[in-house]
Amino acid sequence: MKRLALISCLILCSVLSALAQAEIKFEKVTHNFGTFSEDSPKVTTSFKFTNVGDAPLVINQAVASCGCTVPEYTKAPVKPGESGEIKVTYNGAGKFPGHFKKSITVRTNGKVEMTRLYIEGDMTEATKK
């Protein structure tokens, strides 16, 4: 009888933990820096998100498509209902002026495991002195 109760309890706990899942929801997935000068080639933005699931959300990885783009994110789990942000910096130093579009791939333990964020803008030539 004890064995049956223990097995039933383990099965119930397994089913309930499988149903609990994190889910990330971003306020926006694209950001346009507009036009900025090569004189100040570093621009930064933040992508704010909320864990709308019912389990802690863990960002496993945020990888940019280019070395000129650096994402920063919290390594701590985000509790259900709480928010966080991924800060993204583009550094156009040494790059040709003009339009750019870069992606950041975010991997989580959430219901949707992968999300892509995008940044773009136009860097103009430095002013001649």
Describe this structure in words.
By secondary structure, the protein is mainly β. 14% of the residues lie in helices and 49% in strands. The protein has one helix spanning 2-19, and strands at 24-26, 30-37, 42-51, 59-64, 69-73, 83-91, 98-108, 114-124. It has a four-stranded antiparallel β-sheet with strand order 1-3-6-5, with no helix packed on it. A hairpin with a 5-residue loop joins strand 7 and strand 8. The protein starts with a helix and ends in a 5-residue tail after the last strand.
Task: Supply database-style keywords.
single chain; 129 residues; mainly beta; 1 helix
Instruction: Tell me the fraction of residues in β-strands, as a range.
Output: over 45%
Low-confidence spans: pLDDT under 50, at least 5 residues? Answer: none
- H-E order: HEEEEEEEE
| H/I helix tally | 1
Number of strands: 8
Radius of gyration: 21 Å
The residue fraction in helices comes out at: 10-25%
Strand order of the largest sheet: 1-3-6-5
| Average residue pLDDT | 90
Distance between the termini: 88 Å
Shape: rod-shaped
Structural class: mainly beta
Largest sheet: 4 strands, antiparallel
